[in-house]
Design a protein that fits this description.
heterotrimer; A mainly alpha (about 180); B alpha/beta (about 325); C mainly alpha (about 425); B: about 325 residues; alpha/beta; nine-stranded mixed β-sheet; 17 helices; about 20% strand; C: globular; binds sodium ion; transmembrane transporter activity (chain C)
């Protein structure tokens, strides 16, 4: 059993890399959002700085990307808010089983977001544009959803794997004792 | 969907069926259409929607129900349109400003919101009751956007209002004016020599109060209902655009209806449109009188020519694609 | 059971079950919405639409910006200077920092108008400061989120504008004036509450008050204070809106941290951004997915159903007034403020006026009730933000907030049964 886990564990560096890249993207999106908002304020008073009509829509879209991508990162960090009040009354195995159940459900949600979100983004993209930027398709407004779904699926697979491993590895350790 | 409770349209498919049988089927196929309205029910547009609802329910003998969800609880105009365009019957009908369709390829609809197109209400209603109107209403359907217009209405001309008194277009020069973020309105504000400023509608009251912006623009009724007159008590009646509204329905919901039911919606639409025409001016005059009584500084514009002059370029560029059609509307006065 | 009631049962039932099964709340709301959509035969793309809509309103941007500002100030030496200043000011008093927190919220509420922005900004500065001085983290978070509700009552308040527009014929100006005293009452009850707890838990009391030390600290923390001043003066003076002020404050604290206090270099700033993303990753997705949930509750007319349920239950004005509060509090547990105000106001306001409650007074009641709802599980945006910023698990925050819920209820009862609390100040200006 341990051997299988050891083999699969070799993929971990790839996961670390994906995490780093997504984190980098999130940081950049946050920075750009702050800069655009500040620029729009400055542009109101200083004539050579632009105060474009698109600032609001762009800031909101970038924040949507930031929100969903960072949320996928939080899956890996196990940082999402959940009710842990009764944890101390539950056996370890039940907890792992519940974690797996939740992870599978979120994985399914991720898949739904990929499929439905992609279709929706494509449909709206073919039918509309941003109000302030007639040349930019509405696809980009809804693309964060399938993108988030993809990131969720990626990190959920890892999380489920880790739980299964926890389940078995602990077991074997216990047996050896 | 909330659309139909029984999707089978037995009445049309099997016309030979016995009448008693048919009756049972009809009773079963009660339809509820969800209607989204951004404003509260007591506004001009809200009342128009309500009249439409009552007429539809009356004409259909209660078989078609309209479920109006007012006050924007289902989202802004764009949110609602996005939901409708996504399909599936979450929202079947909504009242939108004609301009909202512009970002969904509504090239014709856009013409209605070009500055100074309509010289007065009469002019707009000439258009709304002309042969051209159905063509405009069906534009999104023809474009494959998936919605169709049922009828037109209006919520009065839009005017600028400001924190400091304004007596002419000259006084607006250099002011920071909040308009929606679309190219037409931004072009117009630049045209009259002011600075278009992006402030979200939710922050507008405070932005006027603190002075982040010097003014904004709304139809008279909305100016009062949003209490903007408390913080920007000066309005100049330049009437740059007429707040043309339309009620749109998804093709999906429309196609599920029998021809008879479709006719009911169209007839109720005509009725609601006529109602809107009657109350719109009346309601606006009442609000205007109230504003004056409250001491709001209302400035009439005697000569609109300099305003029209100032926005000539925007008008030309925004109507370039449909110049002929635009001329037709202009000629309807 | 009608199809609608069944749908509501599925939505709320599956949500509560998933929460008990330890699902992340952000995803539990989305999954229960999926079940409900499927039951109703509605398209799943509602999820995509509502998630994007949920994050896409500009006023919300104050939250990520203020959280970033707070983290930068914390790592860049600004907070440190403010801590010393606060110690010099109120260190002599037991529970002094809790008082600072409560009073800051009153003034900051006059700028942001959003309890979420208030918690994001003050919370990310004050909670670490309080913990640093020996306060419990759950207590610090609890007092931060509770006092942030003052911001909804102190003008400007976006939600009061929504109420005034929905109720119709109410002056936003009068409603704004009506908020000052109730917010002050809330602040005072919270101060009393936190003082009692501080004494009980023996929270720190520093050295005696010294004017010289205070002046010295004011001088040292000049640039830190200027950060606060920029936001206040900028918003009140009409240079930028509250949301924009948050972005400007980030740039300012960045410059002060790197070039003046030199607590950070650019490499450090890059690292600090990771902490910002970590906090935002928890908060924003909750706001996005809660929006789907709220949309379904709205579309299923839950506020209408709940409100209709109380109509005709009793004629007793006192009981009716209590019922109005209860209905708003219950709705507040599962829904966001704006939809409750929009849907419940037209139904409840006539009941309120029929038992002699002034529409302005009722507006204050609605705002405070919904404000309390922001702090209650299972769906409470300010509670979530507080938990993320304070890095304290939600249920611990809730537990620590219990005494403050009582403070808020006392305030609520005063506003409900003593009309002068809200009506006196506007009456002076008539
Ligand atoms: Na406020
Ligand atoms: Na709540």
């Amino acid at each position: 059993m341990l051997n299988i886990f050891n083999t699969i564990d070799k993929i971990k560096p790839a996961y670390d890399m994906v995490y780093k890249i997504v984190l980098l993207l999130c940081k950049l999106l946050l920075i750009v959002d702050i800069l655009i908002t500040t620029m729009a304020v400055a542009g109101r008073y200083i004539s050579f700085i632009p105060d474009p009509a698109w600032s609001e829509e762009v800031v909101l879209t970038l924040m949507a990307y930031m929100a969903v991508l960072s949320a996928a990162l939080a899956i890996r960090r196990k940082a999402h808010i959940r009710m842990t009040a009764f944890d101390k009354y539950l056996p370890k195995k039940v907890l792992i089983a519940l974690d797996i159940l939740a992870d599978v459900a979120v994985l399914a949600l991720g898949v739904i977001m990929v499929v439905v979100g992609w279709r929706y983004a494509m449909l709206l993209g073919s039918r509309g544009s941003y109000v302030s930027m007639p040349s930019v398709s509405r696809f980009w407004m809804y693309f964060p959803v399938p993108l988030a779904g993809t990131a969720m699926v990626i990190f959920e697979i890892e999380s489920i794997y880790n739980h299964i491993k926890e389940f078995f590895v602990k077991e074997e350790v216990y047996n050896e004792c | 969907a909330c659309g139909m409770q029984t999707p089978e349209q037995t009445t049309t498919e099997e016309p030979t069926q016995e009448s008693t049988q048919e009756q049972t089927n009809q009773e079963a196929s009660e339809i509820t259409l969800v209607y989204a309205e951004v404003n509260p029910l007591d506004t001009i547009v809200g009342q128009t929607g309500n009249v439409f609802k009552e007429k539809v329910e009356e004409l259909s003998g209660g078989k078609i129900k309209i479920d109006i969800q007012a006050s924007g609880v289902l989202g802004s105009e764009n949110d609602v349109l996005d939901t409708m365009l996504g399909g599936g019957g979450t929202i079947d009908i909504s009242r939108i400003s004609a301009f909202a369709l512009t970002s969904y390829g509504g090239e014709k609809s856009k013409l209605l919101s070009v500055p100074f197109t309509f010289v007065n209400r009469e002019h707009f209603w000439n258009f709304a009751t002309s042969d051209l109107a159905p063509e405009f209403l069906l534009e999104p359907h023809e474009n494959g956007t998936g919605v169709r217009g049922l009828f037109y209405g209006e919520e009065g001309f839009r005017h600028f209002f400001t924190v400091d008194p304004v007596n002419s277009m000259e006084d607006l020069k250099g002011m920071k004016l909040r308009v929606s973020n679309d190219p037409v309105m931004n072009g117009m504000v630049r045209g009259i020599g002011a600075d278009p400023t992006v402030v979200s509608f939710g922050e507008l009251y405070s932005a006027l109060q603190t002075g982040v912006v010097d003014g904004a623009e709304q139809p008279i009724a909305n100016y009062k209902s949003n209490a903007f007159h408390e913080v920007a008590p000066n309005m100049i009646l330049n009437g740059h655009t007429l707040g043309a509204i339309q009620v749109v329905m998804t093709d999906e919901a429309w196609d599920k209806l029998t021809t008879e039911q479709q006719d009911i919606l169209m007839e109720a639409g005509r009725y609601a449109s006529e109602f809107n025409r009657e109350i719109s001016e009346e309601a606006e005059n009442k609000v205007l009188a109230e504003l004056k009584a409250e001491g709001i500084n209302i400035v009439e514009v005697s000569d609109i020519t300099p305003w029209q002059e100032a926005v000539k370029d925007v008008v030309a560029s925004e109507t370039a694609n449909n110049a002929e059609l635009y001329q037709k509307i202009v000629d309807m006065q | 059971m009608s199809a609608e009631s069944m749908a509501i049962l599925i939505l709320l039932g599956s949500f509560f079950i998933m929460i008990l099964l330890r699902f992340p709340i952000a995803y539990a709301v989305a999954i229960s919405s999926v079940f409900t959509l499927m039951y109703q035969g509605l398209p799943l793309n509602t999820i995509a639409q509502q998630m994007v809509k949920g994050i896409s309103y500009f006023s919300l941007m104050a939250v990520p910006f203020f959280i970033t500002m707070g983290v930068l100030m914390g790592s860049g030496g600004i907070s440190e200077k403010l801590i010393l200043l606060a110690k010099a000011c109120v260190g002599w008093m037991r529970g002094g920092m809790a008082m600072v927190n409560i009073v800051s919220s009153y003034f900051f509420g006059g700028i942001s108008g959003s309890a979420a922005a208030d918690t994001a900004s003050l919370g990310s500065i004050l909670i670490p400061m309080m913990v640093d001085q020996g306060y419990d983290d759950d207590f610090s978070t609890a007092i931060t989120i509770t006092s942030s509700v003052e911001g909804l009552l102190v003008p400007p308040s976006h939600n009061m504008v929504i109420y005034a527009t929905t109720a119709g014929g109410i002056s936003v100006g009068s409603l704004f004036l009506a908020g000052y005293v109730p917010a002050a009452i809330l602040a005072i009850t919270l101060m009393i509450g936190s003082y009692i707890i501080s004494v009980k838990r023996n929270y720190p009391k520093g050295e005696k008050f010294s004017m010289i030390n205070l002046l010295k600290q004011i001088f040292i923390s000049f640039w830190a204070l200027a950060a606060v001043l920029i936001v206040v003066v900028g918003v009140v003076g009409g240079v930028f809106t509250a949301t924009e002020s948050a972005a400007v404050a980030v740039i300012y604290s960045l410059i002060v941290s790197v070039y003046i206090y030199k607590g950070l270099d650019w490499k450090g700033v890059w690292k600090v951004l990771e902490a910002c993303v970590d906090t935002l990753s928890i908060v924003l997705i909750l706001i996005a997915t809660s929006s789907i949930f709220g949309f379904l509750l709205t579309r299923l007319r839950v506020p209408t159903l709940a409100s209709n349920a109380i109509i005709g239950l009793t004629d007793n004005p006192i009981l009716l007034a209590l019922l109005l509060n209860i209905i708003l509090l219950v709705l507040g547990c599962i829904m966001d403020m704006a939809p409750i105000i929009l849907i419940a106001t037209p139904i409840l306001l006539p009941i309120a006026t029929s038992i002699g409650i002034d529409p302005i007074q009722f507006g204050i009641m609605v705002v405070l009730n919904c404000g309390i709802g922001l702090l209650t599980p299972p769906v409470g945006s300010v509670l979530f933000i507080g938990s993320a910023v304070g890095k304290v698990p939600m249920e611990r925050v809730v537990k620590a907030t219990l005494p403050f819920y009582i403070c808020m209820i006392i305030t609520l009862l005063l506003i409900t049964f003593v009309p002068a609390t809200s009506l006196w100040l506007p009456s002076l200006f008539r």
